[in-house]
Specification:
Function: Fluoride-specific ion channel. Important for reducing fluoride concentration in the cell, thus reducing its toxicity.
Order of helices and strands: HHHHH
Keywords: Cell inner membrane, Cell membrane, Ion channel, Ion transport, Membrane, Metal-binding, Sodium, Transmembrane, Transmembrane helix, Transport
Number of helices: 5
Distance between the termini: 45 Å
Subcellular location: Cell membrane
Organism: Candidimonas nitroreducens
Family: Belongs to the fluoride channel Fluc/FEX (TC 1.A.43) family.
Largest sheet: none
Number of strands: 0
C-alpha cells in the first residue's frame, strides 16, 4: 500500500502541475471559456482512453504504473477524464440510456452543486 500512495501522489502532483501550467498559459487567450481548463479536460479524456487501452494490452506491467498514470496523473490533471472513460465504457457496452443519465447527472449536478457552494459562501458572508 505504501508504494501505491507514493506513485499516486507523484502522478497527482505532475497532473496538477500540468493543469496549472495550462491554466496560466492558455486561460487569458479566450476569456469567455477558460481554455486551459478545457484543454486539460479534453486532453485528459484523450489520455485516459490511451492509458486505459495501453494498460489493458500490457497487463503484465506492475499495477503501480496504472495507479500512477490513471489514478494519480489523470486525477491531478482532471477528474473529467475518469467521468469520460466511465461514460465511454457505458456507450461501448450499448448502455446508451445509462450513459446519457451519467452525462446529465455529472454535468448538471456538478454545475448545480458549484452554484450551491457559491450561494452558501455568499450567504454566510452576508450574515457576518
Amino acid at each position: 500500500m505504501n508504494a501505491a500512495i507514493v506513485v499516486i501522489s507523484i502522478g497527482a502532483a505532475l497532473g496538477a502541475l500540468l493543469r496549472w501550467v495550462l491554466g496560466i498559459s492558455l486561460n487569458a487567450l479566450w476569456p469567455t471559456i477558460p481554455l486551459g481548463t478545457l484543454v486539460a479536460n479534453l486532453v485528459g479524456g484523450l489520455l485516459i482512453g490511451v492509458a486505459n487501452e495501453f494498460f489493458r494490452n500490457h497487463a503484465g506491467l506492475p499495477p503501480e504504473w496504472r495507479l500512477a498514470v490513471i489514478t494519480g496523473f489523470m486525477g491531478g490533471l482532471t477528474t473529467f477524464s475518469t467521468f469520460s472513460l466511465e461514460t465511454a465504457t457505458l456507450i461501448q457496452g450499448g448502455e446508451i440510456g445509462a450513459a446519457a443519465l451519467e452525462i446529465g447527472l455529472h454535468v448538471v449536478g456538478s454545475v448545480a452543486l458549484t452554484l450551491l457552494g457559491i450561494f452558501i459562501v455568499q450567504y454566510v458572508a452576508s450574515q457576518a
